[in-house]
Amino acid sequence: MAATNTRWDIFCTVVDNYGDIGVTWRLARQLVAEHGVAVRLWVDDLRAFERLCPEIEPGLAQQRQQGVEVRHWPQEWVGADAADVVIAAFACQLPGPYMDAMAEREQPPLWMNLDYLSAEDWVVGCHGLPSVKYRSVQKFFFFPGFQPGTGGLLREQGLIERRQAFQQDPAAQRTFLQELGIDPAPGSQLISLFAYENAGLASWLDVLAADARPTHLLVPEGRILGDVARWLGADALTAGALQVRGSLTVQVIPFVRQDQYDRLLWCCDFNAVRGEDSFVRAQWAGRPMLWHIYQQEEDIHLDKLDAFLALYTKGLSSGAAEATGGLWRAWSAGLPIGQHWLAARKHWAELQRHAQSWSLEQALQADLATALVQFYRNWL
Ligand code: TRH
């Protein structure tokens, strides 16, 4: 039996920031567009959603966006029938009455927890395993990942081809950037900076400002802006701000919709990203990058960082691998990265080639939406 004509419910609580809604919104759209299933996306915070999708009406209990039925997940559950497939994103707790509705279906639904992304080895062993049971309904672990045996990464059909065509078309890139009010001086390197607060930023900006090569730094409105403003000696920065220090031009840009953010990453020579979804999108951009990992209690994020670095740097020369590891570890620890940046620059051509080949290698795996549909077919 195909997944077409099935009904899927995705539940998302916005813990903080934009990753939870970022991942579930992409997944919901892709399931509808490429797998022909009906999706309801239950979200508890439509204001965060609105940042990624300005068409969202935060006051509506129910609305249709790009083929997805978006439902506000209210504190007081109003009751709804259970779908054929139920995805609880990032271990969110489903409403009690909805769990009862799942259990009361004639054919219990497939219930999955879509987990956080990690490159750690144990993920392969846990992906797809049964988790808890609620009455007759069994829950399963579904782990995204980078290695065969995991659920893969979100990647829409033809994404790599679209990215390659765009990167080979300077006129299309210029037009796109101009639409966002971005007009870098010829010959400057373009860098995007999406990160959490980071005390190590100043040392990087010092080096970029003193560099012989001009840099145009794009900073979407967000948590790192305070550090940027401090370095500039400026008051609070807002979208549209443009300041020059030595070789460095700093431009603050508005938060853009997800597909625009993808193309922004494709345009840049280097992307600093964070969390989960922007981290994956920077990999699909095929350009050298820097990851600000989301901090977790007891520093468990450091194991995740090391696990990813071990995978990512495997094909690199020892010099390039060391430079990448040094840069990423210092950045995620909030330490000065100026010298690490200069060390990485020495291996630039290799890092560029590697970013391309990494994206192509990762694209050989089944994408996450397809893997979910396949999981459902196997479960039936
Ligand atoms: O925002 P993040 O830090 O999100 C998360 C959450 O904190 C979550 O709780 C945590 O568990 C997770 O990180 C690890 O980073 P992320 O995942 O990159 O999400 C940002 C989303 O915002 C992503 O979908 C891309 C999108 N985005 C835009 O659509 N437009 C923009 O201009 C920018 C800068 C981002």
TrEMBL record:
Signal peptide location: none
Task: Please indicate which superkingdom the organism of origin belongs to.
Answer: Bacteria
Entry's InterPro entries?
EarP
Coiled coil spans: none
One example of the protein's molecular function in GO is: translation elongation factor activity
A Pfam family matched by this chain, by name?
EarP
Please state which protein family the record places this protein in. Answer: Belongs to the glycosyltransferase 104 family.
Function statement = Protein-arginine rhamnosyltransferase that catalyzes the transfer of a single rhamnose to elongation factor P (EF-P) on 'Lys-32', a modification required for EF-P-dependent rescue of polyproline stalled ribosomes.
Q: What protein does this entry describe?
A: Protein-arginine rhamnosyltransferase
Lineage of producing organism: Bacteria, Pseudomonadati, Pseudomonadota, Gammaproteobacteria, Pseudomonadales
Gene name per UniProt? earP
